[in-house]
Amino acid sequence: MNVTIPVSSESSKERLRLWLRVLKATRAVESEVREKLRLEFATTLPRFDVMAALTQHRNGLKMSQLSTVLKVSNGNVTGIVERLVEDDFVIREKVPGDRRASLVKMTDKGLAEFTTQAAAHEIWIDEIFAAVAAEDAVQIADALDAVARKVDKKGNSDDQH
To answer: Which of 1, 5, 50, 77 has its CA 20 to 30 A from that of 132?
Structure first.
């Protein structure tokens, strides 16, 4: 079996190097944030993410909606929500007319805790990215948004076929 490997251009090699650096930086930042959440708040990044999503959707989300927002499976979210309920950070309410569905909402205690965590999170991210000028951060963010839009558009068009 003969496989033809296309000759890559210098620009494609630079883009590959960029991807590898983005991946390396993402993993390093995520690891740092996970550790800080663990040490300072005795919590996890997935719990933080669930609370962040629910804070953005103050009227609550069904479990399936929460999974969609977080781009994870329902099973991943269920255990996290259970523990957040035990801590009185979120509540589950029945959805009228749908016996199987629950609406998950932040409690006042959960909002207060998330507000504290989010403020610390913002400081950590600012410190981690201190070497990046604000103007550069805007340009990098715009470039990464363009990549995400292209991938999302491609994924959506693939789903339609």
So the answer is: 50
